[in-house]
Amino acid sequence: MKCDTGTNRARPGLDQALAAVRACDTLVVPKLDRLARSVPDARDIGDTLVARGVRLSLGGSIYDPADPMSKMFFNMPAVFAEFEADLLKTRTREGMAIARSHGKLSGLACRHCNTWLETCPHSSGCAWGDYLNNPPAAHLGLAHPRAAISRKPRRSGA
Predict the structure, then answer these.
(1) Is the Cβ–Cβ distance between 85 and 37 less than 8 Å?
(2) Mean pLDDT for each consecutive 10-residue tract of the chain (158 residues)?
(3) Chain-centre distance of CA 97, in angstroms?
(4) Euclidean distance between CA atoms 118 and 122, whole angstroms
(5) φ and ψ of 157, to 5 deg
(6) Which pTM was predicted?
(7) Least C-beta-crowded within 10 Å: which of 2, 43, 52, 151?
(8) DSSP 144
(9) Entry's Pfam families (predicted)?
């Protein structure tokens, strides 16, 4: 499942903002990490805007690719934004691994009745593997097929 986050370049809000600006406009972004979470994406967006004649305002400063100081103050926050995103991913993976090793993160639960999918009454006798390919969303009247599934920490002794 794809989310609309800063780590994903294909975001509807970003696409709409980039499509709406025209030559001589200024795209105002409070912080660079709101625009992009990787150096290549930030540079690509910045270069695209400059090529179209659109100015980019980052935190009140106009980005000018012809000025070495401006380029530095554009690239440094991009490096830190990418580092922050990578650090967040690493910490999340480590935390999930620790939780799994303590038995606190395992299995999927039905959001409708909050029971384990293996024992969910909405399952119609489906095997465990079928939930990942064909979740019970249709039985529950949910629009998104994954909307019926959530992570549920398994309690020790359960």
Answers:
(1) yes
(2) 56 88 92 87 91 91 89 91 92 86 67 58 48 50 52 52
(3) 20
(4) 10
(5) 90, 0
(6) 0.56
(7) 2
(8) S
(9) Resolvase
Q: Which token pair is 23?
A: 């030559």
Distance CA 21, CA 27 (A): 7
- Residue spans of the domains in the chain: they are 12-101, 108-151
Q: Report the C-alpha gap between 146 and 124 in whole angstroms.
A: 17
What's the half-sphere exposure (Cβ side, CA atoms, 13 Å) at 102?
7
Label residue 22 left, alpha or beta by phi (over 0 means left) and psi (-120 to 50 means alpha). beta
Beta-bridge mates of residue 150:
109
Residues 6+ apart with CB under 8 A from 87: none
29 has which bridge partners?
58
The one-character DSSP state at 116 is B
The runs of H, that is alpha helices, within the chain are 12-20, 32-35, 39-51, 68-101, 128-133, 137-140
Position 21 scores a pLDDT of 93
CATH 2.130.10.10 fits 12-101, yes or no: no
Two tokens at 54?
A: 């659109």
